[in-house]
Amino acid sequence: MSANTIVFFDLETTELDTSVCDLVQISAVCGDQFFNMYTVPCRPLSDGASQVTGFSVQDGRLFLHGVMMSTVPLRDALSYFLSYLQSFRCPILLAAHNAHRFDALVIRRVLQHCGLWMDFQRLVSGFVDTFLLSRRLYPCLEGYSQEYLVRNFLGKTYTAHNAAEDARMLQELYELWSPNREDVHYCTYRT
Fold first, then answer.
1. What tens-digit pLDDT sequence spans the chain (191 residues)?
2. Is the separation of the CB atoms in 191 and 121 below 8 Å?
3. pTM
4. Could you give the domains of the chain?
5. CA neighbours within 13 Å on the CB side: how many for 181?
6. Phi and psi for 60 in degrees, rounded to 5?
7. Domain Exonuclease, which positions (predicted)?
8. I want to staple 27 with a disulfide (CB 3.0 to 4.6 A). Which of 74, 100, 136, 164 is the partner?
C-alpha cells in the first residue's frame, strides 16, 4: 500500500443541511502549502451560520466580521482547489473534522453540480474523518469538538469556524497524534 498525501481541509457554508447549503469558504493546508478562497453564496446565510462564522452577505458582497472579502465564483474556487491538490503526490486523502457527516457530502455535491467531480476523483482517493479518529485514539475524552481537542492537546485557543484556522489547527492536531496507518484506514471513506 503506497503512502497517501494527507491534505487537511475545512468548509464554511450557509447552513448545516448538506443537501442544500452553499459554500462560503474553502481552505486547505498540507505542510506549509496553504489554500484559501471565499465565494458569495447564492442561498442566504442562516442566522446560526452567520452568528457562528461572522459571515454576512450585503448587496452581493461577502463580509467577514464587517470586512469585505475578495471572492471568486464557486466554480473558479473549486477549480483553483483542484489545481492546489494537483501540486501534491497522489493518492491524496482529504482530512476534515466530521468529514463523513458533513464536509465530504458538501464537497461532493458542489463538485458534481459544477461538473468537476471526476477531476476530483482522479486526485483524491478518500476522506479521513478526524472526529472519528480522535474518538478511536482517545476514547475517554470529555468531548470531541475540534475546539476542545485543540485546547486539550495543543493548549491553544483559535478562531474556530474560520475554515483557514480550522484546517491549520487540524493539521497540528494530526501531527501531534501521529496515528498509525490502521487507525487512519479505519476512519477513511473512499470517494
1. 457 899 999 999 999 999 999 999 999 999 999 999 999 999 999 999 999 999 999 999 999 999 999 999 999 999 999 999 999 998 999 999 999 999 999 999 999 999 999 999 999 999 999 999 999 999 999 999 999 999 999 999 999 999 999 999 999 999 999 999 999 999 999 87
2. yes
3. 0.96
4. 7-190 (3.30.420.10)
5. 5
6. 75, 15
7. 5-183
8. 164
